Amino acid sequence: MRNAPVAEISEATVGALDKPTPTFFGEPRALAYLAFTEAWERFSYYGMTALLVLYMSQALFLPGHIEHVAGFGAFRSGLESVFGPMSTIALASQIFGLYTGFVYFTPVFGGLIADRFIGRRKAVMLGAVLMSGGHIAMAFDASFLLALMLLIVGCGFLKGNISAQVGGLYGENDAAGRTRGFSIFSIAINIGAVAGPLLCGLLAALYGWHAGFGMAGLLMLFGLATYIAGFKHLPEGARRQAREVHPPLNAKQWRTIAALFGVMLLSIFQSIAYYQNSNIGLVWINAHVDLGLFGWRMPVSWFNSIDAFVSIVSVPGLIALWGWQARRGAEPGEVGKIAIGAFLAAIANGLLVLACVMGGRTSVLFPVVYDVLLGVAFLYYWPTMLALVSRAAPPGLKSTMMGFVFLTLFLSNTTIGRLGAFYEVLGPARFWALHAGIATVGGVLALVLRRKLEGMFAGALKE
């Protein structure tokens, strides 16, 4: 590896090595390009997403605007034929859920196409181009539905494949290096997730919604430029291997796949409780939280930066905590960490229930602490699951299995959108109590199944 470009080494060859050449914070040089590409992509995605439900419910779906959206009449009729008549907030929530859900559904097909036909590098490039076009199209009312479609398809090619490229930088037995790599990668994700809502939200507040969406498009172009700059350093992946004849999966590999699907299903409960903060969470804050600050009203979208910021600054503390626990033989396993994350998400949603019960204009401290807890909860479950799937998935199926990880977010976000349609019917207190209960169920199930699932991983990887 020291004498050859990373891009020319097959996944099998990389997997045979124990340690990569340290060049970027002790990790492979290619990780820098992958991390910064993902940072720009998440910058644009979260900047746009933080505006989306507010833009739909406060501007786009109101008379004088909704008539200008190409094809929207037929689209709305189709939705209401399935879900029934919807209010403006319910319609905005439903579309938000479908959009953010399908953004994480298409990576399954993007991973399959990359593994079987075009390779990961070309897939990520294609995804970045399509997403750039989608963000730019969001700057116009008429192209709203086209913009969502471009973003959904583009994300399908980019998301799973860029994550699989991170995993491809490390040997199969280099669990510690892989965890470090995904931790750095997650920091890049969260840097983008912090900055995107702040910048795009500020521009939207000062110059209008389309200024915020236009900035998201520009940021995605930066991500594309970053990936192009590092193209020759990036691992190609398993395209050539996938065209070869592979032996059938053995019983141990099938058990590993089953265990991975079990962990993915457990994560859905926390994802529902977590990602509602970008949908109805913003609607609730806008209506019930005192946002005045020295005569200036804080942009609601800024709250979407808090959990991501906490996910960055908490990494050193959590790594130190897990190291301290490991030295005493008490570090939670992967499934145990997912359980802890679910319980933290339950507590966060419980705080909003308390705020609703208290009545009156809610102190800004409630949504701030809510997002702080969600940020820590994120670190307990998402990087843990990415690292686990990248390490344990059988060779030749890593991109595909990584795509299935994002499929859990499809299920979660479509559920979020549907639940959000009942916000006005349930009322705020019962709505957030429902989400606290969902997260609690996920945590309990993870605790109950922890020993079984972690035992399956230990047996499958012990070779």
Characterization of this structure:
This protein is mainly alpha-helical and 463 residues long. It has one domain: Growth Hormone, Chain: A, CATH 1.20.1250.20. Helices cover 75% and strands 1% of the residues. The chain has 19 helices and two strands. A two-stranded antiparallel sheet has the order 1-2. It is globular and about 60 Å long.
Considering the chains and any ligands shown, give keywords for the structure.
single chain; 463 residues; Growth Hormone, Chain: A; 75% helix; 1% strand; globular; disordered N terminus
Q: Which structural class do the helices and strands define?
A: mainly alpha
Count helical runs. 19
Question: What is the H-and-E element order?
Answer: HHHHHHHHHHHHEEHHHHHHH
- Architecture (CATH level 2) name: Up-down Bundle
Mean pLDDT: 85
CATH topology annotation = Growth Hormone, Chain: A
Task: Name the CATH class.
Answer: Mainly Alpha
| Alpha-carbon distance between the two ends | 24 Å
As a percent range, the share of helical residues equals over 70%
Categorize the overall geometry: globular
CATH superfamily: MFS general substrate transporter like domains
* Range of strand content: under 5%
What's the total number of strands?
2
Q: Which regions contain 5 or more consecutive residues with pLDDT less than 50?
A: 1-18, 238-244
Count of separate structural domains: 1
- Main β-sheet, spatial strand arrangement: 1-2
Rounded to the nearest angstrom, the radius of gyration is 22 Å
Largest sheet: 2 strands, antiparallel
